[in-house]
Amino acid sequence: MEMEMAYDGREQRRKCDCLLFDLDDTLYPVTSGIGADVVRNIQAYMIDKLGVEESICLDLCILLYKQYGTTMAGLRAIRYQFGYDDYHRNIILSLPIRKVVFTNGDKIHASRALKRLGMEDCFQGVVCFETLNPTSPTPLPANKVEIFDILKHLAHPEPGVHLPKSPILCKPSIDAMLQALKVASINPQTTIFFDDSARNIQAAKQIGMHTVLVGSSERIKGADHALESLHNMKEAFPELWEEAVKDEDVRNSRGRERAWSSKADDDKDKKAL
Ligand SMILES: [Mg+2]
User: Fold this and answer.
1) What is the pLDDT of residues 135-191, one digit of tens each?
2) Ligand 1: distance of its center to the CA of 24 in Å?
3) Region Disordered: start and end of each range (predicted)?
4) Structural domains of the chain, ranges and CATH numbers in brackets
5) Ligand 1 centroid to 50 CA: how many Å?
6) Residues with beta carbon < 5 A to ion ligand 1?
């Protein structure tokens, strides 16, 4: 497959110097069981800790995911009160290009998933939930907060009433994408972005990244390529391996990564994430 990287004004081909990977359903498929576990944990949390009725939990979960990018961002938007830590308790190695994971999941989930995949040492960094949302708010008392009835709002929208904005930064928000690139010192013009979500792919395309939809062989709007699985990556992008070997800058990428991750994480976290 021919790779169509961005060209500058003089029509010189820009080399890829970073691969940015989503985690869930991209680095591993749902069939591995981790994805299903996460969905079950989210629903259990909503029912047990937030008092959401079991009969509407799954529908609410899906609806909030669709509206806000993650169920958690939606729950905060409609005014459920919880701390972020509490909520979230629940072939690549051979490529000498800087590799970073960008997940909406928290760092414990990312660490566990990467460990389970045996890929802890494959990445120079992880941009995760805590990277974009470093401080957890102090929840207001339940009697001070009126939960926004999103089911009613979407079924019968009232004039002048808008969906509340979530305070949480996550994909596919453009603000979240830009913040992730800034924190990790990533140039979108020289980065390939891998994700299974059509919305995330479209957002990445909007800010100039080269995009690969994972988990499908059919390209969608905003996707430069579509790959059934990352296992096909070497066949799809042989030039990455060839070009990277020649590029001395790549060998310095690990050092750059340490510079940003060390601000927020201790040595143990840095190793895992
Ligand atoms: Mg995903």
Assistant:
1) 888 888 888 889 999 999 999 999 999 999 999 999 999 999 999 999 999 999 999
2) 4
3) 248-273
4) 18-272 (3.40.50.1000)
5) 25
6) 22, 24-25, 196
